[in-house]
Write a structure and sequence with these properties.
19% strand; rod-shaped; alpha/beta; Anti-sigma-W factor RsiW; transmembrane helix; four-stranded mixed sheet; 2 domains; transmembrane; 208 residues; 11 strands
């Protein structure tokens, strides 16, 4: 028997309108279905309370008595169970949940160190001819740098050749008309961009 049908039959039964043959079917279903049996018992208790309250206060027509009656009825109803939709989602999508936790941990870790230091950092495999003056890193005209060049908290002034990528984090990138960059140029000056850059670098290190 379908539970939706059982609910309708329960109401008809309590109103005394359910045929005898259907009463037997309903009782059989209630014996085998805890959910419907619980609903039936709750409706029975509510109806009994309502009957008792009306019997005790047959002439309660003023607003205060009516509110008291409503309060007694509502307090007798079972408390609804809290719907923990997030736990169901985690159980149904464990892989996505694990990925989300990883991203949150990485984000917390990286953003906690964002802007903690303004020290100039220059990274690359070929820095012999790179000129560093204050917070400005210059690739002079006529000079060729092999490999990637990464500059944090400074200004990149590219006038020569870079045979790789140029990445500037929390700084500025200037290229002269004589400059030639074989790879890509990236300017990262927001915490979220920096976070994704770090995540990309992490995965790149794991796969290499």
């Amino acid at each position: 028997m379908n539970c939706n049908v059982a609910i309708v039959w329960i109401r008809d039964y309590m109103d005394g309108e359910l045929p005898r043959k259907d009463i037997l079917t309903l009782k059989s279903h209630l014996l085998s279905c805890p959910a419907c049996r619980s609903r039936f018992e709750q409706l029975e208790r509510t109806e009994a309370l309502l009957f008792t309250a009306m019997k005790e206060e047959p002439y309660a027509t003023d607003q205060a008595a009516s509110e008291a009656l409503n309060r007694r009825i509502m307090e007798s109803l079972p408390k609804p169970k809290r719907q923990r939709t997030w736990t169901r989602w985690v159980r149904r999508h464990p892989a996505a949940a694990a990925a989300a936790v990883f991203v949150l941990v990485m984000l917390a870790s990286f953003t906690s160190s964002w802007d903690k230091s303004s020290e100039l950092i220059v990274r690359g495999s070929d820095l012999q001819q790179v000129v560093i003056n204050g917070d400005t890193v210059t690739v002079p005209e006529g000079v060729s740098v092999n490999g990637d060049l990464t500059i944090e908290n400074g200004t990149a002034d590219v006038r020569g050749d870079v045979n790789g990528n140029v990445t500037v984090i929390d700084g500025s990138l200037y290229t002269a008309s004589t400059a030639h960059i074989a790879g890509q140029t990236k300017e990262i000056d927001r915490a979220l961009d920096w976070f994704w850059y770090k995540v990309t670098q992490t995965f790149s290190g794991l796969t290499n």
